């Protein structure tokens, strides 16, 4: 598993009856890789993993793996209400042929560090797959502090990366100082990619990449090589859309961007509903302006 580059948190497409559209999903996977992405993360929050059954999750992973072939890593998001279910998902992902895991805190229950450490440890021990810890205190109310991440690193040789979504760019520097080359640090907040790239992040688990992969890859590459002028030029163009990744309706907004860009539909599974009215009009205005001024 190579935890570098732009790795989309890929959306899950649905047909009119809201079953998974595997034919389009395979096409979307291939298109993202053809445009320079280095892997795929499926079943995350952007992938509406919480609305998928266990069997659907397995089918989605197998479709992605078949679509991109053995040389492209597919990572499974591991999120569940219980530790037992999370372990089951991790083991299924390994059997399906995934190359890595993205390990989330348990859904709903916000435990203390002792409980969260035990949950993550159980998932990490369940398979030999390379794993990325997902730190998103804004969404999940669990904050894996740098010192706690170091505890996990000391105990688990297959923990190799962190998706840092605290929206605090100082975490990138803190983790780099504490962990050195032992830990790959990937940005998980779209509208922080310029700052985090300059601070030394090694990858980007991206959202708007689902609609704009070539631009996402170019922005990330410019940021990590220190080309501030080109990175800022792209960032200024992209920023109104990148901010769509950090609001409650980010799934609806990113799928709408896909539809407007001609690569997907806006369908979501309830309890999410598609945007309507003034909310839809404003989102379309932002996306269409970006399309009209594409660099």
String of helices and strands: EHEHEHEHEHHEHEHEHHHH
Shape: globular
Quaternary state of the chains:
single chain
CATH superfamily: Aldolase class I
The tally of beta strands, per DSSP, is 8
Helical residue percent?
40-55%
The whole-number mean of residue pLDDT values reads: 96
Number of helices: 12
Strand order of the largest sheet: 1-8-7-6-5-4-3-2
CATH class: Alpha Beta
Distance between the termini: 32 Å
What's the domain count? 1
CATH topology: TIM Barrel
- Detail the poorly predicted runs: none
CATH architecture: Alpha-Beta Barrel
How much of the polypeptide forms β-strand, as a percent range? 5-15%
Largest sheet: 8 strands, parallel
The secondary structure category is alpha/beta
Report Rg.
Answer: 18 Å
Structure overview:
With 295 residues, this protein is of the alpha/beta class. It has a single domain, classed as Aldolase class I (TIM Barrel, Alpha-Beta Barrel), CATH 3.20.20.70. It is 48% helix and 12% strand. It is built from twelve helices and eight strands. The protein has helices at residues 22-34, 54-68, 83-96, 113-126, 137-140, 146-155, 170-179, 193-199, 213-224, 228-242, 250-261, 277-292, and strands at residues 5-8, 40-42, 74-78, 100-103, 130-135, 159-164, 184-187, 203-206. Strand 3 (74-78), helix 3 (83-96) and strand 4 (100-103) form a beta-alpha-beta unit. Helix 1 crosses helix 2, helix 2 packs parallel to helix 3 (83-96) and helix 8 (193-199) runs parallel beside helix 9 (213-224). The two termini are 32 Å apart. The model has no long low-confidence stretch (mean pLDDT 96).
């Amino acid at each position: 598993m190579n935890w570098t580059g732009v790795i989309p948190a890929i959306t899950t497409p649905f047909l009119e009856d809201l079953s998974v559209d595997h034919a389009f999903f395979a096409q979307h996977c291939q298109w993202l890789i053809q445009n320079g992405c280095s892997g795929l993360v499926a079943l995350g929050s952007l992938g509406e993993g919480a609305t998928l059954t266990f069997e659907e999750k397995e089918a989605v992973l197998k479709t992605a793996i078949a679509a991109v072939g053995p040389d492209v890593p597919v990572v499974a998001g591991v999120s569940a209400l219980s530790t037992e279910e999370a372990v089951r998902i991790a083991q299924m992902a390994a059997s399906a042929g995934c190359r890595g895991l993205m390990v989330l805190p348990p859904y709903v229950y916000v435990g203390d560090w002792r409980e969260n450490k035990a949950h993550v440890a159980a998932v990490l021990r369940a398979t030999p797959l390379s794993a990325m810890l997902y730190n998103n205190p804004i969404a999940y109310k669990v904050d894996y502090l740098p010192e706690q991440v170091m505890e996990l690193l000391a105990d688990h040789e297959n923990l190799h990366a962190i998706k840092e979504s605290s929206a605090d760019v100082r975490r990138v520097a803190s983790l780099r100082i504490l962990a050195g080359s032992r830990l790959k640090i990937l940005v998980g907040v779209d509208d922080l990619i310029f700052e985090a790239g300059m601070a030394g992040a090694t990858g980007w688990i991206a959202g708007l990449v689902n609609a704009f992969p070539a631009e996402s890859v170019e922005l990330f590459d410019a940021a990590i090589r220190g080309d501030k002028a080109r990175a800022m030029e792209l960032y200024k163009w992209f920023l109104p859309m990148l901010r769509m990744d950090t609001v409650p309706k980010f799934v609806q907004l990113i799928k709408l961007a896909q539809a407007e860009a001609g690569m997907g539909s806006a369908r979501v599974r309830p309890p999410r509903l598609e945007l309507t009215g003034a909310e839809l009009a404003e989102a379309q205005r932002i996306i269409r302006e970006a399309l009209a001024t594409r660099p």
